[in-house]
Amino acid sequence: MSDISFEPPRGMRDFYPEDMAWRNRVFDAWRAAADAFGFQPYDACVVESLALLQRKSGEEVSEQIYAFEDKSGRALALRPEMTPTLARMVAARQGRLHFPIKWSAIAQCFRYERMTRGRKREHYQLNLDIIGSDDVLCEAELLGAAVNAVRRMGLPDDAWRIHLSSRALLGELLAKSGIPAAQHTAVFMALDKRGKISDEDIADLLRNEGLAQSAIDETFRLLAVDTLDGAAALAGAGSPAIARLRALIALAERMGYAHLLQFDISVIRGLSYYTGIVFEAFDVQRRFRAIFGGGRYDSLLALVGGKPTPAVGLGFGDVVIGEILRDALGDVCPTPRHGYALGYMTEAERAAAVSLAARLRADGHPVNLALLPQKPKHFFAQAGASTAQFAVFLGPDDLAAGIAKAKNLDTRESVDLPLA
Ligand code: HAM
After folding, report:
1. What sign has the CA pseudo-torsion 293, 298, 299, 302?
2. Which of 103, 115, 123 to mutate to test the pocket of ligand 1 (most atoms within 8 A of CB)?
3. pLDDT in tens, 371-400
4. Of 16, 120, 132, 334, which alpha carbon lies 20 to 30 A from 303's?
5. 3-state DSSP call for residue 151?
6. pTM exceeding 0.85
7. Residues enclosing ligand 1, CB less than 6 A?
């Protein structure tokens, strides 16, 4: 036993109380934002059937699955993402659900990845999905909810941007360059590897897909387009993809986050199921992988055996935003003071302290009752360093007077609490 490490397995995390403070800050903001935008919570099993998760599209995530066999020989896996599971759940009840549905989940996901700062082998992901509508207001609401969550966490708007593009737009442009639609997904998956492998290797991938050298050159030229107007000029008047992107930006204007949007044709997304608008949020210095990412995936429901149904969603991980928040707000999570710290000098005041704690708790106040008698100096030092709003210390004089003093740890003012 003695050579068992104290560390969690590589890429996995323990959450000590100081880590939980950060995690709760993120989860609380996620839940509040999802609720503010009318998403209903759901959940699912962490273990999924391998067949549902595996797609044969050259996606990185398919190669990162933690897969295993159960004792009956079933091929199972820890989910690397929530979207296939959501598609399965929705397909199972497609006749009974009232579409469009807006669902949210906080899902732990597992990917066997190469580790860097902001990249682990396990993470929690807020998933927001709207299924059953192809209106671009869905994209606007989704992004609005994600912006709302980031703002609740305390990250200023100038620290991050949402990079926006559209696979439908890229599809239109590829089609204009003579690349048939059947090859587009393979082209997307190859282009998504940009920055991770060399452009020559990407060209090789495209060549293997049967693209001629002229089509490959044209594909790289498309990626050099850096404004929406530039893309619109290439796509030509009447491009549905451009109209949709402009409609989203107009809605974002009304919702107060258009200044966070940035057209970026290089955003493609590494998952094969996206069909329309795609987006990824990054810190402005681009130190990390995406804060969140998502897009429209109108074909996935049919792919898992359901009826064709439009859908759009995003995944927002806890790791990257955690690193960015620590950098922006300091290493100790700022937690608002609340509740009472309650101490006592000797065993003689303990019973009164227990009764007072019971009364305060019955009134709905959190109370951290000292487990042992303490010197006042020691108690107040601990209370000050805790998250308590009020510190109450019972000594023999308080008991005799029948009144305790609750000291507000922000204002240093005291209020009287009768002990009876
Ligand atoms: P994704 O881009 O693969 O999308 O992941 C979404 C987010 O999860 C990323 O932006 C990142 O914050 C976080 N994340 C992913 N992998 C890791 C990792 N190894 N370590 C730390 N954080 C990570 C999806 O998963 C899609 N299923 C999202 C979606 C929902 N699309 C539609 N609905």
Report:
1. positive
2. 123
3. 999 999 999 999 999 999 999 999 999 999
4. 120
5. helix
6. yes
7. 81-83, 111, 113, 119-120, 123, 125, 127, 129, 271, 289-294, 297, 313-315, 317, 319-320
